[in-house]
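Re: export button greyed out
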Amino acid sequence: MSEAQDFVGREYDAGFVTDIESDTLPPGLNEDVIRHISVKKGEPDWLLHWRLQAFEHWQTMESPDWAHLNIAPIDYQSISYFSAPKSPKDAPQSLDEVDPKLLETYAKLGIPLREHAALAGVAVDAVFDSVSVATTFKGKLKDAGVIFCPISEAVRDYPELVQQYLGSVVPTSDNFFAALNSAVFTDGSFVFIPKGVRCPMELSTYFRINASNTGQFERTLIIAEERSYVSYLEGCTAPMRDENQLHAAVVELVVLEDAQIKYSTVQNWYPGDENGVGGIYNFVTKRAECRGARAKVSWTQVETGSAITWKYPSCVLLGESSVGEFYSVALTANCQQADTGTKMIHIGKNSRSTIISKGISAGRGQQSYRGLVRIGKQADHARNYTQCDSLILGDQCGAHTFPYIEVKNATATVEHEATTSKIGEDQLFYCMQRGISAEDAVGLIVNGFCKDVFKELPMEFAVEANRLMEVSLEGAVG
Amino acid sequence: MLTIENLHARVEGKEILKGLNLEIGSGEIHAIMGPNGAGKSTLSNVLSGRGGYEVTQGRVIYQGKDLLAMSPEERAWEGVFLAFQYPVEIPGVNNAYLLKAGLNAKRKYLGLQELDAMEFMSMVREKAATVELDAAFLSRSVNEGFSGGEKKRNEIFQMAVLEPSFAILDETDSGLDIDALRVVAGGVNQLRSPDRSMMVVTHYQRLLDYIEPDVVHVLMDGQILKTGDKSLAKVLESRGYDWVRAEARS
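Workaround output, generated via the alternate export path:
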């Protein structure tokens, strides 16, 4: 019996359900539903029009089937597109007005929303089902000129900014899931860092799906003006439910000259049980545009959750000497499937990109790295370095690599390195012979494998990521 | 310290050890010599608990306990150490971190207080010097990019840190040049102690010029066919192994 073969009981410790009164739309998707969402949110006409256009386009589109994923057809009419915790008022004005049960939910997740209890230096926006319930440290951020609020609030308070940038990176017609999101998105975070400002703290959004039969469609928009800097983190969890739930988010980043955005994700949506029942379908479009010279964007993601992950955080490197980075750890255990990677589109001269992808497959997990590096005609001396490593535990899982490289400029340098290794019985035995239990040894080896990516995470998340890997690998060995 | 009685073991259905008997007393160094395929590595692996080996008969009593009933990590906690013939690379895992995890697991098992990072590092620096291992090694990934000699020195260094009661040195001399061999053997000799036994598995006599054994055994055809003192190693060096089998059969 192989030591690494058994990959059984995987504990999901964020799987509780919060019993809370909510205002949920009946399942179904049509123009009226979209109008209803727009009215609920008190949106201006232009946004309703934008949504309806997206919806019209979506109806002409087909769900993409090119990914290496096995997905049962999704019935978009059986999903509810809006669910909000019922609050005493339409919107809580301060934390004191937030339902205590909600605060409790976030406390259980280890996310203290009360400012005095919050981790020093991290501002948190909490999104529960379809709405943002609380944003901390708003005042302090405002003093620095930073806007950090739910996107629905930004639509109301900063309509020109939202109108200028929304859909400018990911157009409504970009792809099937982005079009759907554009039609029905309910909340998400909005961040604006003005010229020359270094955001004084880490910004963080926690997404939580609670209601059943509900989709979550959040929309995040971050704008970093010239010479500004922001580090943004997002975390995601959901209760354990037997049915699959849809999460189709869109994240747009706009990076102007000499600005930098560091975007980190720890995605721990419910992955389904060991037989593949339940779990979140995670179809996400994330894209950054480096619009000015020397603009820089880093995507760092740790993906341990979701039954299905379809996600390719991308960088469009328009500016001269702009920089795109993608650091990813993805774990697929039990029956999880992931098709994930990145796109680096080099347009500016001397633009540079780095891709470090670490995939871990266990149980019956199927994982694919899919990455595109495109060097445009004008991108003189553009450079890309890609390193793509897969680690396999057991013999029933799969790891696949689909690199696409398109180079239209002869001065470009593109490097691609890929390795696949089995978590060695030899490595495990070596650790055990030194007195480390098999389970701890797997954690040690996997964390070692992920080190290049974990070191890119902000401190608070690096600890969380390490712990998450260990929890996710519980029972990995027999 | 260690008593092996009538040990039979199989790998992939093929019987490799065929009724092996061996007795190692406290503080003794026993050399196990034999030609390729005699079962030397199998013996090392069975004693340390590597997967894939099936013991079909016999027993091993270690310090009064049934060794074969223990998991590999329990054996480590009980003081069994294997210096690997081919130490494996573990990318991204810090050498010192691995060793600290192992040592503290052992201390916990023995009811001792775990060492904190400061105590551990000062102890470890001292031990690294005994095998002329640069302290910079401690922060490198386990065996990654180490030369053959560095890997073997690292093994002996780990042995010095873990302070085993029974150490198995599996072909520790393989792949070493003469200078590296001298350093490694010097490290081993410093670890000789009345309450520490060692089993030195080797193909060649030359290691025994540096690590002087109390007893020399010839392992052939899955059994100990001959036992003698250190002069036996010299005889094997000049005469080879075939005569041992002939003698045993007659």
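Chain B has one domain: 2-249. The button fix ships in the next patch.
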